[in-house]
Amino acid sequence: MDEIEITITQLMWDDWNIDHIAWHNVVLEEVELSLSDPQAIFLQAKQGRLMILGLAKKRLITTVLNAQETIGLYYVITARDMSKKERAFYRSRKEVKNE
Fold it and tell me: What pLDDT is recorded for position 11?
């Protein structure tokens, strides 16, 4: 997986995505915290979307975003706990960044 650099200036929230992440037991504050994690990993995902692996307090979160027409504006598609594979990747990349 290749990391990319992006700037997120604003997230788009609506009833659908708030309810959707709640189904995964995630709240929007956790998403925002995970995206501001200094060790967050930004990856290109399917269909031109972005996948971000980040830490929100003690919880490792995967967030998928879709870029909007306005630069820096992203719609939150989903957010959930990282899979085992994602956790291993995040931890391995975090060690590289800290060296």
Answer: 96
In a domain, 4, yes or no: no
Q: Which two tokens stand for residue 5?
A: 């650099």
Please count the other Cβ atoms lying within 10 Å of the Cβ belonging to residue 73. 15
R_g over Cα of the chain: 13
Does 69 reside within a domain? yes
Could you report the per-residue pLDDT of 38-79, keeping only the tens digit for each? Answer: 999 999 998 889 999 999 999 999 999 999 999 899 999 999
pTM: 0.89
- Chain-centroid distance, C-alpha 21: 12
CATH number at residue 71: 3.10.450.530
- DSSP letter at 3? B
Domain that holds residue 43: 10-98
